[in-house]
Write a structure and sequence with these properties.
Helix 1 packs across helix 2, helix 2 crosses helix 3 and helix 5 crosses helix 6. By secondary structure, the protein is an alpha/beta fold. The chain has 3 domains: 42 residues; 155 residues, Rossmann fold; 58 residues, no CATH class. The longest helix is centred in the C-terminal third of the chain and has 24 residues. 41% of the residues lie in helices and 11% in strands. The strands form 4 sheets. A 5-stranded parallel beta sheet has the order 5-3-1-8-9, with helices on both faces. It has a two-stranded parallel ribbon with strand order 2-4. It holds the Pfam family UBA_6. It comes from Pandion haliaetus (Osprey). GO terms for molecular function: hydrolase activity; mRNA binding; RNA endonuclease activity; zinc ion binding. Keywords: Endonuclease, Hydrolase, Magnesium, Metal-binding, Nuclease, Zinc, Zinc-finger. InterPro entries: Rege-1_UBA-like (IPR040546), RNase_Zc3h12_NYN (IPR021869), ZC3H12/N4BP1_RNase_Reg (IPR051101), Znf_CCCH (IPR000571).
């Protein structure tokens, strides 16, 4: 029994001396769980873990450094802890929830889907703005689904309630759209909404440019949050570049000629011909200008040679 337990814990990586001490204290008939607890209490570690600790010592990393992975950071931290290459995200919670609920129900599950989509991409600064009166019990004229999600997002410091109050039985609500645009503008982030905020564009000319360039629209397809791959149109940046602080420009590529080897345009053809790797892609006029420059330079050199004797 002693040898079998000794072999068992040796395979786990513990030292023989520590195992023998524990077996002497607990007895040879001690259960394996009790022996393992005693080994842990003594501070004994498997040799594999000790070797890993020696080979990879802990390194101090500055706050806000991009050396850490985006997924290892908390969503509730400030922008200084966010990744250096992804923009902050500001979500219009009311717009997203009503879009997911087909403009009939305030669906909090739609907000959760949007937050999860950006969280999986690695965004660490995510804020959702919702009016404070959405915390109240739902009414028939304004139904709310999955209201508990709002409480969970608030605990994670993702959800922010815009203030509201009641004066003589009437609700006074602050304009939440102004909160959304202002925070996104100050953080140099992205607004997630299908609203165009035309009134705010006319109110502030700086906000007008920002809303036109940083508004990310979306759709819900079978409970799936889907922003477009080209947020600013066909000729604009891709979605990855749109959400990045440092966009990566694509390498210029020649469009291949549709006629291929049957092309009869020669140097006039503006398309790429892979069968002509050494042939310059110049027009006839440019090629003639280049030849004239070469002949003129050669003529000047000959005149110099003739004058030198």
């Amino acid at each position: 029994v002693h040898q079998s337990k000794l072999d068992f814990f040796c395979k786990l990586g513990y030292g023989k001396q520590d195992i023998c001490k524990v077996l002497e204290n607990l007895g040879q008939e001690a259960l394996e769980d009790d022996v393992l607890k005693e080994l842990i209490r003594m501070g004994s570690k498997p040799q594999a873990l000790e070797s890993q600790a020696q080979l990879s010592p802990l390194k101090l990393v500055a706050r806000g450094s991009c050396s850490t992975t985006p997924g290892s950071k908390w969503l509730g931290e400030d922008e200084s802890d966010s990744s250096d290459y992804l923009r902050p995200i500001v979500i219009d919670g009311s717009n997203v929830a009503m879009s997911h609920g087909n403009k009939e129900v305030f669906s909090c599950w739609g907000i959760q889907l949007a937050v999860d989509w950006f969280r999986e991409r690695g965004h660490t600064y995510i804020k959702v703005f919702v009016p404070l009166w959405r915390k109240e019990p739902p009414r028939q004229d304004s139904p709310i689904a999955d209201q508990h999600i709002l409480e969970e997002l608030e605990k994670q410091s993702i959800l922010v309630y815009t203030p509201s109050r009641k004066v003589k039985g009437k609700r006074v609500v602050c304009y939440d759209d102004r909160y959304i645009v202002k925070v996104a503008y100050e953080k140099d982030g992205v607004i997630v909404s299908n609203d165009h905020y035309r009134d705010l564009q006319n109110e502030n000319p700086e906000w007008k440019w920002f809303i036109e360039q940083r508004l990310l629209m979306y759709s819900f397809v079978s409970n799936r949050f889907m922003p477009p791959d080209d947020p600013l149109g066909r000729h604009g940046p891709t979605l990855n570049n749109f959400l990045s602080k440092k966009p990566v420009l694509p390498e210029p590529k020649w469009q291949p000629c549709p006629y291929g080897k049957k092309c009869t345009y020669g140097n006039k053809c503006k398309f790429y011909h892979p069968e002509r790797p050494h042939q310059a892609q110049l027009s006839v006029a440019d090629e003639l200008r280049a030849k004239i420059k070469v002949t003129l330079s050669l003529g000047k050199e000959e005149e110099k040679c003739n004058r030198s004797p």
